[in-house]
């Protein structure tokens, strides 16, 4: 019902001249505030709720809830043509509504009639919003009306509550006393003085309850833009915060605390400001009675000194009078009253005097299970696997509360729970039977909130929140409270979420730091350091990884990024810096280590919409099928035990990046990859500077990039399908005459769709082009070039390609050298390379056997393929003798030696076809 009112209000806000729009505008209530407080509108229709509720057979419960009325045969709504303010309790349940008249009808404010769940005298408006701040500060700002509370929260007074415009009830006072220690009153200044009379009454009542009270006095009237208006917390806070001369860092909460008066002293002054002597004496007597209610001796002495000045007497005498009153009160009270205890419920007794807990024991009678603390449940959390966790509060006799997170199995075991609490240096003396009694009491007699337990970092689809280790993001920053909880709203549904808890090194990786750099500035550095053509596809893939769930929703596959290159080419650096966009950098998982499939699956399931990087891919890998499953978005299933027919399923939520010196041999697996070959290059000074800057940034953490990009999620969700389809269509058109597998351009469209969406909407700048059509052409051109290269490598893998792949590795590993095993010679416009084939073949064959555990291609096969590559008839037409530098293994002392069996090949063709790069090599450490 609250949602229906809220949705209707949002629908009529487009009508600027609508009465509710005009009213909200006058009160400066923005759409954001309306959504935050879930304000609604009951239209000029007496059956707005009634008709649909009758259709759903839910009219009778609606009558019981107080939103509908049945008068004989007439059935209608209770609220009509009113702004609807939902009344929510501390457990985030809507218990009733206040309807504000918009057409001058009385009553101005109409409340839901009393129901089993709505009792106006027990309500404190805004408690669901203020509870966290009150728990932290143990202080409350109490005002009268609902809009007073909304305005104060708007300007940062997060602990503001409203009493509902009526006299403060005993139930409200009890609730205030449980919540905090200090209450600051901000009441209306009315022409008839009703607000100030209420201030006197409530101040006295709260002081008698033992609370410390402060009074903040509003000005008599508010003058704004030549108009005089009523002085209340709403008008005053909006007027004050609009003043141009406010200090830059003005804090309204601190201002109120600074200007507020001590309630006891203010009240004593009000009571004694009379010419009549008897009235003065009565005021002093009442003031001393309030002084006796102050339980803290230090505060009692401070108040006595101040009152002595007001009454023109000695503080010592006031203290003696207060002490007599305290003794009389104590003597009149029972020695030990159940009314003094926090809870008494049959089998459980929480004694407030000594903060002990007694529980009915199986041996008969009550057993003291804790002698200096009370135990409460603050939250119960449940994760996606239906595992429960309990957030418990230890409320000690002295000191601040302590909060602990306890797994469900430990909460159900007396021995385990005792160990956990002992770790906090408190003793719980309880048996399993006594623990069951305590749990029954806590479940039935106390209130606690439910929360969703988040078990992985990254994006949580049901709530729309992205979780770092120390912060959460849903369009704005959500800072966890002392319980590790954050609050959000998804589809008008409030949600409480428990932050993921992992081991320290995992949490460290996902920690959001205060580094600041824009996505555009980062990409400029990234492209400068690694080259634009090398950088664009990995960067686009990382954007897809961040919005992986959106990509999977449209096309249920997640392309694997595969970077292939020798040592020193920078492939690892290219991936590592991208992983730092999710907090701090991730080191690659070495696939040459003895990893089990179960361990790898856990790694891939620890983050959602985040990349995970595997290094040292090789073709003997036993878990290649697991990577294929990640591409196909298939989960991992395993039997729970040998006796059960049930299985546990672990879903993979990460996008995979692989780096390697080798090309994948399995064409089925290779077709699931987006392949980017990285070759050695001689970096310019500018490139090196960009590279070093990236190194610095990744050490500092680059979560700021993810925070910036998350604000565009709604855009990506709405435009992703169109972007993918457009890219797919144009990539497919590039291969009209080629028999290209559809998967290749589907993969590329999936990788580029997020980048195209953001670039064409001018949210990021990663292309030289600016118009949407030109951006599309640029991305398609680079994507098509990449696809052709990958398909050619996959379909044309020969003995010669494997030979040069290993030659590249030997060069990167400093096992072959220029001028000894090969040499360059410029011939016209072409660059030729001379190869000492017999020696290179020997090294190739040794390496091939070691890697693949099988015989390599024979010399004749390779020589025939070399001749065919150079369009020569046979090897005899190719072979030559060249002089090469002495390698030191010959008996000759000559600087160079003739090497028979050599050949000369077109180096440019080899570089283009096989990615051969023997010109520059990283300096050996």
Span from first to last CA? 71 Å
Beta fraction? 15-25%
* Structural class category: alpha/beta
> How many beta strands in the DSSP annotation?
39
Largest sheet geometry:
6 strands, mixed
Q: How many helices does DSSP assign?
A: 36
Q: What coarse outline follows from CA principal-axis ratios?
A: elongated
Poorly predicted regions are 333-339, 639-644
Helix content: 40-55%
Mean pLDDT, rounded to whole units?
Answer: 87
Question: Taking Cα atoms only, what radius of gyration do you get, to the nearest Å?
Answer: 38 Å
Write the layout of secondary structure elements.
Layout: H1 2-12, H2 19-26, H3 31-36, E1 40-42, H4 50-55, H5 59-64, E2 68-71, E3 74-77, E4 82-88, E5 94-101, E6 109-111, H6 127-137, E7 139-143, H7 146-154, E8 160-162, H8 170-179, E9 182-186, H9 194-208, E10 212-215, E11 222-224, E12 227-229, H10 233-241, H11 252-259, E13 261-262, H12 263-272, H13 277-292, H14 297-311, H15 315-332, E14 343-345, E15 348-351, E16 356-360, E17 366-370, E18 373-382, E19 388-396, E20 402-407, H16 408-411, H17 414-422, H18 432-445, E21 449-453, E22 457-460, E23 465-467, E24 472-473, E25 477-478, E26 485-490, E27 493-498, H19 504-509, H20 519-530, H21 532-546, H22 548-554, E28 560-564, H23 571-579, E29 589-590, H24 597-605, E30 607-608, E31 611-615, H25 624-631, E32 636-639, E33 647-650, E34 655-660, H26 667-670, E35 673-677, H27 685-700, H28 703-710, H29 713-733, H30 742-760, H31 772-795, H32 799-812, E36 822-827, E37 830-835, H33 837-852, H34 859-869, H35 875-878, E38 880-885, E39 896-906, H36 907-914
Parallel strand pairs: 7-8, 7-9, 9-10, 18-21, 21-27, 22-30, 28-34, 28-35, 29-31, 31-34
Antiparallel strand pairs: 1-4, 2-3, 4-5, 5-6, 10-13, 11-12, 14-15, 15-16, 16-17, 18-19, 19-20, 22-23, 23-24, 24-25, 26-27, 32-33, 36-37, 37-39, 38-39
Helix pairs in contact: 7-10, 12-13, 12-14, 13-14, 13-15, 14-15, 20-21, 20-27, 21-30, 23-27, 29-30, 30-31, 32-33
């Amino acid at each position: 019902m609250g949602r229906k009112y809220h949705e209707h209000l949002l629908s009529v806000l487009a009508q600027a001249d609508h009465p509710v729009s005009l009213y909200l505008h006058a009160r400066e209530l923005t759409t954001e505030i309306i959504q935050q407080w879930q304000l609604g509108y009951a239209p000029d229709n007496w059956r707005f709720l009634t008709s649909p509720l009758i259709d759903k057979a839910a009219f009778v419960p609606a009558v019981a809830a107080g939103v509908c009325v049945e008068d004989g045969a007439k059935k209608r709504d209770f609220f009509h043509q009113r702004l609807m303010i939902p009344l929510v309790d501390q457990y985030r349940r809507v218990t009733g509504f206040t309807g504000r008249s918009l057409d001058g009808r009385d009553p101005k404010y109409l409340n839901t009639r009393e129901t089993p769940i709505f009792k106006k005298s027990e309500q404190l408006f805004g408690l669901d919003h203020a509870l966290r701040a009150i728990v932290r500060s143990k202080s409350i700002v109490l005002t009268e009306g609902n809009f007073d509370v909304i305005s104060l929260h708007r300007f940062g007074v997060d602990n503001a509550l409203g009493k509902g415009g009526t006299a403060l009830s005993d139930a409200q006072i009890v609730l205030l006393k449980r919540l905090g220690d200090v209450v600051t009153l901000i009441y209306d200044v009315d022409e008839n003085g009703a607000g100030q009379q209420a201030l006197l009454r409530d101040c006295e009542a709260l002081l008698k309850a033992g609370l410390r009270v402060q009074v903040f006095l509003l000005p008599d009237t508010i003058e704004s833009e030549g108009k005089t208006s009523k002085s209340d917390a709403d008008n005053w806070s909006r007027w004050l915060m609009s003043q141009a001369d406010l200090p830059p860092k003005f804090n309204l909460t601190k201002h109120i605390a600074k200007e507020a008066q001590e309630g006891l002293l203010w009240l004593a002054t009000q009571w004694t400001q009379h010419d009549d002597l008897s009235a003065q004496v009565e005021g002093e007597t009442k003031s001393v009675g309030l002084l006796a209610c102050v339980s803290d001796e230090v505060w009692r002495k401070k108040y006595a000194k101040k009152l002595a000045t007001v009454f023109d007497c000695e503080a010592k005498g006031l203290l003696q009078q207060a002490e007599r009153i305290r003794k009389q009160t104590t003597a009149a009270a029972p020695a030990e009253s159940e009314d003094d205890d926090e809870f008494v419920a049959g089998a459980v007794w929480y004694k407030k005097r000594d903060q002990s807990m007694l529980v009915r024991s199986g041996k008969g009678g009550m057993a003291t299970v804790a002698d200096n603390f009370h135990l409460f449940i603050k939250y119960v959390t449940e994760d996606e696997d239906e595992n429960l966790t309990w957030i418990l509060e230890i409320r000690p006799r002295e000191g601040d509360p302590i909060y602990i997170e306890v797994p469900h199995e430990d909460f159900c075991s007396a021995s385990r729970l005792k160990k956990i609490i002992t770790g906090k240096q408190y003793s719980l003396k309880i048996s399993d039977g006594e623990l069951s009694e305590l749990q029954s009491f806590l479940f039935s007699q106390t209130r606690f909130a439910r929360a969703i337990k988040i078990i992985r970092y990254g994006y949580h689809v049901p709530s729309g929140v992205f979780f770092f280790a120390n912060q959460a993001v849903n369009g704005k920053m959500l800072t966890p409270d002392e319980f590790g909880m954050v609050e959000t709203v998804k589809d008008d549904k409030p949600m409480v979420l428990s932050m993921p808890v992992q081991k320290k090194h995992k949490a460290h990786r996902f920690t959001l730091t205060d580094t600041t750099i824009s996505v555009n500035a980062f990409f400029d550095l990234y492209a400068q350091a690694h080259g634009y053509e090398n950088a664009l596809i990995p960067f686009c893939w990382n954007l897809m990884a961040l919005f992986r769930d959106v990509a999977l929703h449209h096309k249920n596959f997640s392309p694997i990024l595969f970077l292939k290159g020798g040592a020193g080419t920078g492939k690892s650096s290219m991936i590592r810096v991208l992983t730092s966009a999710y907090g701090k950098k991730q080191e690659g998982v070495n696939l040459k280590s003895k990893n089990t499939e179960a361990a790898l699956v856990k790694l891939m399931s620890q983050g959602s919409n985040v990349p995970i990087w595997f290094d040292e891919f090789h073709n003997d890998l036993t878990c290649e099928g697991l990577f294929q499953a990640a591409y196909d978005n298939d989960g991992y299933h395993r039997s729970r035990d040998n006796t059960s027919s049930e299985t546990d399923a672990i879903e993979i939520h990460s996008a995979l990046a692989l780096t390697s010196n080798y090309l994948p041999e399995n064409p089925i697996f290779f077709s699931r990859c987006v392949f980017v070959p990285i070759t050695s290059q001689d970096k310019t000074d500018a490139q090196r500077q960009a590279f070093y800057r990236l190194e610095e940034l990744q050490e500092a953490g680059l979560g700021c990039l993810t925070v910036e990009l998350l604000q565009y999620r709604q855009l990506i969700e709405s435009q992703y399908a169109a972007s993918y389809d457009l890219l797919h269509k144009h990539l497919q058109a590039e291969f009209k005459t080629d028999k290209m597998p559809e998967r290749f351009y589907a993969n590329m469209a999936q990788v580029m769709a997020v980048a195209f969406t953001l670039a064409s909407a001018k949210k990021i700048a990663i292309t030289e082009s600016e118009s949407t059509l030109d951006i599309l052409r640029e991305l398609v051109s680079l994507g098509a070039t990449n696809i052709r290269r990958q398909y050619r490598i996959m379909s044309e893998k020969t003995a010669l390609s494997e030979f040069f792949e290993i030659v590249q590795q030997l060069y990167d590993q400093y096992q072959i050298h220029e001028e000894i095993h090969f040499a360059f010679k410029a011939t016209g416009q072409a660059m030729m390379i001379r190869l000492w084939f017999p020696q290179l073949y020997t090294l190739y064959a040794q390496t091939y056997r070691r890697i693949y555990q099988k015989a390599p291609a024979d010399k004749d096969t390779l020589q025939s393929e070399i001749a065919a590559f150079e369009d020569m008839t046979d090897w005899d037409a190719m072979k030559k003798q060249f002089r090469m530098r002495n390698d030191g293994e010959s008996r000759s002392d000559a600087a160079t030696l003739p090497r028979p069996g050599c050949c000369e090949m077109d180096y440019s063709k080899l570089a283009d076809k096989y990615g051969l790069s023997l010109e520059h090599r990283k300096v050996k450490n």
